[in-house]
Structures are given as C-alpha cells and as structure tokens.
From TrEMBL:
It holds the Pfam family GT87. GO terms for cellular component: plasma membrane. Belongs to the glycosyltransferase 87 family. It comes from Nonomuraea mesophila. It is found in: Cell membrane. This is DUF2029 domain-containing protein. GO terms for molecular function: hexosyltransferase activity. The chain crosses the membrane at residues 14-34, 117-139, 183-207, 219-242, 279-301, 307-326, 347-367, 387-406. It comes from the Bacteria.
Length: 440
C-alpha cells in the first residue's frame, strides 16, 4: 500500500470538517473585531470600555494579578491578589506573561501583547471545540456545530475570559467517550476540571447513565484517569504554593452573590427568605433539588436518555443556581444545548436573551458606582429583564429536553437508527436498573 493510499481515508474524513473550521475561524475573528475599540486603547477608560461593549478580564488581570512581575500561585502578593483560577488557566497565564515580557519592555505594551497571545489560543480553542463537537454530533448532525462557531452570543463573549479552553477540553472528553477511549476521556475531563470547575457536572451525568446501564468498568476507568490527570497538574502547586493554589477554592466558597445570578434579583428586591438567606446554602440546596430531579428523570425515562441531554440539564441547573452568572458562561452551555436538542427556534430565542444580557450588563455597570452615569446606563428593573430572560429561555430549552427524554420519538437526533451519538458504551446498551424495575 502506498503512502498516498494510507493518507487518503484520513483526508476524506477531514474534508467535510474544513468548512466548519473556516466558520469557527470566522467566529474567532469576529470576536477579535468586537474588542478592537478596547484593543486600540479603550481599556484605559472604563466608560469607553462599557459603552463599546468590549470588556475583557485578560488585559486588566495582567496588572491586577501582577503578571508583569510575579508568577501565579508563587507570587508574593496579598491573598486577594492571587490568581483566582484553577491551575491550568494559571499556567496558561504564566507562559503567556513570560512571552509578553520577553517581547515587550514596556508593561502597557506587554499587557496588549499578553491579550493578543491569549486571544490566539482562545481562537484556536474555539476552532478545536467546533471541530470536536462536529465529530461528536456525527455525519447526520455535523452542521449543528455552526451554532458554536458563529452564534452571536459566542462571538460577543468569546474573549471575556479563558472559558474556551475548558470548552475544547470538554468536547474532547465527549468525543473520546463516544469513541470508547475511556482513559483519554478521563484525562481530558481531569484537565477540563483543572481549567474551569463546571465540567465536574459531567461526572454526575456519566454516573447516572452508568447506574442505568451497569457499565461500571468504563466509568471507573474514566474516573480514575480523571483523578490522576487532575492530581498530576495540581499536586505540585498544592505542595509548593499552597496559598496560591487554594485561592480559587476560597474565592469560590466566600464569594457573595454577583452579577447575572437570579439571587441578585431576590436580594435587590428584598424578597423574604430568597433575598435574605445565605446564598451559598440556597444555591447548593437548589442545585441539589434540580440534580435529584435529573437523577429521577434519568432512571425513570422509558428509554435511556442520551449523554448530551443529561450533561446539558446538569450544566444548566448549575448555571441557574450559581451565585454568579457571567456573560461568558454562555460558552459553557452552547455546545451541550445544541447536542441535546438541535432545534433552531428555542436556540435562537435563547441567543437573543444572551445578546440582550451582554448589552444590559455593561449598561447597568455604567449606572453603578463609582461611574454612576445614569445618562449612559440602565437601572435595576431594566437590567433584571435581561437576567430573567436568560433564566426563562434556558428553562424553556430544558423543558423541551425533558419532553424529548420522556417521549423519545420527539428526539430529532434519534433518527435513522441512531441511539446516542456521544454515548460510547451507553449507545444501544440494555437497561440494568430503572425505577420501574424496583416494582417488578
């Protein structure tokens, strides 16, 4: 067999993905254009940053976390100035700050270079995430990945923070699981959790479907690999930079209610109980109730739910009950929402809500102290329409997914003999435990 003949099948498989890669690159480029007003100097004026809707954490954190002079986790800075992210993101920041310092002697120029380098990585992460999502969706639903490539909310939120890195790792995990490569799936899951904490919700989804199908060995191998990968990247910092390492976990625990969260509405309006009780307790209790409902649904459904459906429900529940709901959190949910239910109408409605929230949060901050520019910003009531717009539209999508689970014939993905395109060992698996089996 010639080398050309060996390469031909791979090339043939790659060709259908090329247009999606181009669209993802387009989305990444548009996201860069959105922030050009800040990239060319607007970051140094908070009013200009908000009125041009081009805020990002990347540029200011270069200064505020002393990246120009210090190393994350090992920095000799006050505890509240330590990098408040898990270690994978901290080390990405570290490497790019080294490169920026090497390229530019001036700190302001370094920060801009740090932003540019980070954006290149995030753009590549978006392209990778889109291609991986397309592979997970399979040939019959490949073009659903366009939602992740060029959805308006994705373009607007892409470079606010480092979330796209975790998105690519999560999609890689899902594809590895779909291809029954449990060790690789576990490693990618562990790295994803060490990048952003939200992929931890996928452990519950895998556990529930494992419980229903009794495919315990693949699940345990994946979990062992995830724990191992997480420990490999975390242990050195836990041992040698304990205070810097634990900053993320302390910050997450002690952080109060913040922008985007429905709890902020209840506090602002002074609601009894919901606006007065400890938000951490309320959030955890609410998440526990929703997760219990997802567990009951998974084990009671007439047909085993698809993995993407349970991942979406778990992740949406986490976002809706969290103490903070930043604009970039939309990047977490888009690929899983599309894989769970690729119906354009509720997805488009949700995108409108996310775009409105993206606009509303910056206008709202203009009217808040210390800027207090009421002439440029919006008030509480207008802002909270955006908060509830996201809650309601995601709730609508969750309701449709629940309906598809209870009535599998409505699931547009389960057509033409497809059971679960991301299911891996779950696909076409027999039920070993359901709630109905208890009564038999």
């Amino acid at each position: 067999m010639t080398s050309t003949e060996v390469r031909a099948p791979l090339a043939a498989r790659a060709i259908p993905f090329l247009p999606l890669g181009v669209f993802a690159a387009l989305g990444a480029s548009l996201a860069y254009v959105v922030r050009l007003p800040c990239r060319t100097g607007g970051w140094n004026d908070q009013i200009s940053t908000y009125t041009n809707f081009c805020y990002t954490d990347i540029y200011p954190l270069y200064f505020d976390r002393q990246l120009a002079t210090e190393n994350p986790y090992f920095a000799a800075v006050p505890f509240d100035k330590q990098v408040e992210y898990p270690v994978v993101l901290g080390e990405v920041m570290q490497v790019f700050s080294w490169i920026a310092r090497w390229l530019e002697p001036d700190q302001v120029a370094q920060a801009v270079r740090f932003y540019d380098l980070t954006v290149i990585l995030l753009g590549l992460s978006l392209v990778a995430g889109v291609l991986l999502m397309a592979a997970v969706a399979g040939p019959t639903r490949r073009w659903d990945a366009l939602w992740y490539a060029v959805a308006p909310a994705v373009v607007l939120a892409a470079y606010i923070n480092w979330d796209l890195i975790a998105g690519a790792l999560s999609m890689g995990m899902l594809l590895a699981w779909a291809r029954k490569r449990q060790v690789l799936a576990g490693v990618l899951l562990g790295l994803a959790i060490a990048t952003k904490f939200y992929p931890l919700m996928f452990v519950g989804a895998l556990f529930l479907l494992t419980w229903r199908t009794a495919r315990w060995r693949p699940f345990l191998v994946t979990m062992a690999s995830a724990v191992g990968a997480w420990l490999v990247v975390n242990l050195p910092f836990m041992v040698f930079a304990w205070d810097g390492w634990r900053r993320f976990y302390v910050f997450s625990q002690e952080r109060g209610v913040d922008w985007g969260s429905p709890w902020l509405f209840f506090q602002n309006k002074g609601w009894p109980v919901l606006g007065e009780a400890d938000v951490s307790t309320l959030g955890m209790a609410s998440l526990a109730v929703l997760c219990f409902g997802i567990a009951v649904l998974t084990l009671a459904a007439p047909r085993r739910p698809r993995l993407a459906q349970i991942c979406f429900l778990a992740l949406a529940a986490f976002m809706m009950t969290n103490k903070v709901w930043s604009p970039q959190f939309v990047l977490w949910l888009v690929p899983f929402a599309v894989l769970a239910r690729p119906n354009w109408k509720p997805l488009a409605l949700w995108q409108l809500a996310e775009v409105w929230y993206f606009v509303a949060i910056w206008l709202y901050l203009l009217a808040q102290p210390p800027l207090s520019r009421d002439d440029l910003g919006i008030g509480d009531d207008t802002y909270f329409t955006a908060v509830w717009g996201r809650v309601i539209t995601i709730g609508i999508m969750m309701a449709f997914v629940v309906r598809d689970i209870l009535r599998p014939g409505k699931d547009v993905v389960r057509q033409d003999g497809i059971d679960d395109q991301a299911g891996g060992v779950f696909a076409d698996a027999r039920d070993r435990f359901t709630l109905a089996s208890i009564t038999r």
